[in-house]
Amino acid sequence: MSNPLPVNPPETTPPMSPISRLVGVFISPGESFAYIARKPDILFPLIVAMAGSAAVIETLLWKIGAAQLVRNSLVTSGRAASMSADQLEQAVHTAAPFTAIIMHISAFLGAPIFLLIMAGIGLLFLNLILGAQVTFKGVFSTTCYASLVRLVGVVMAIPLIFMGDAEHLNPENPIPTNPGFFLDPSTTSKGVYSLAASLDVLTLWFLIVLAIGLSRLTGSKTKTKTVFLMFFGLWMVWVLGRAAIAAIF
Length: 249
Known about the structure:
Blueprint: H1 18-27, H2 29-38, H3 43-63, H4 66-77, H5 85-129, H6 136-146, H7 151-163, H8 190-198, H9 201-217, H10 224-248
């Protein structure tokens, strides 16, 4: 009698719901991203990321308004100091409608564009530089889930917007997750302020979690440390470049 053909053992890993994956990104990223690597999905984390971005931007527009946001931006950038009161009001009146439109659009398109760029960079690092063989879907799913750690910023920002002083709120840096939050942008050197505001704890956390996820996507063939250092190096180039440009102009 011939031996029966071997039967593949059933998968022993219990299925994880999208909510479980979201929670796992915070409390057990290695396990969660190993599961995401096997069964990548995009729609849920992308919608959550877009909802978080939209919540902050729409709260800014509803609570403070585009006109006040433009006025605050002109004051903190120092440009208001060279304007008369009438010139300032005219500039605010002209820019406010366009600012509102741009913010509404960015509320829903900003997150997908950012995540697509980060996923493209991740795919370049893994496949072309580190020699991995991963798909864009896997990288994009991992990037979307990693970005959910930034929801901490959403949870912090919305109460601060409601409770803060509308006249002094800096819409570009509304939460105390970087040294720039504690500096006065109107009196601090532009280069120093740009550097301080860019060194954000949530961004660093996102890069660490993203590196964990991309490492798991390759079956841990690429080390988390290697992936992180590649992203960290690129981030430092971006931070220092922005600070240099701000200092010059």
